[in-house]
Amino acid sequence: MCLAIPGKIISKKGKVVVVDYGSEKRKASIIDGSYKVGDFVIVQGKIVVDAVPAEQVKRWHRFLRETSKR
Q1: Is 35 helix (H, G, I), strand (E, B) or coil?
Q2: pLDDT range class, residue 45, cuts 50, 70, 90
């Protein structure tokens, strides 16, 4: 099983986006769908596979902060 962490698209040029994960930025390709700067996405194998609602990302970050304090 692989854990996919959502990142935010910070730039887009054609079918290539830069995704910001907070601690690092990575390039990924868009194969299917229309994504825009500001969208939160899941990337697998350098390919954007799905969008994630912003509220879900906030809950995910809150969970990580809480569990890292233990």
Answers
A1: coil
A2: very high
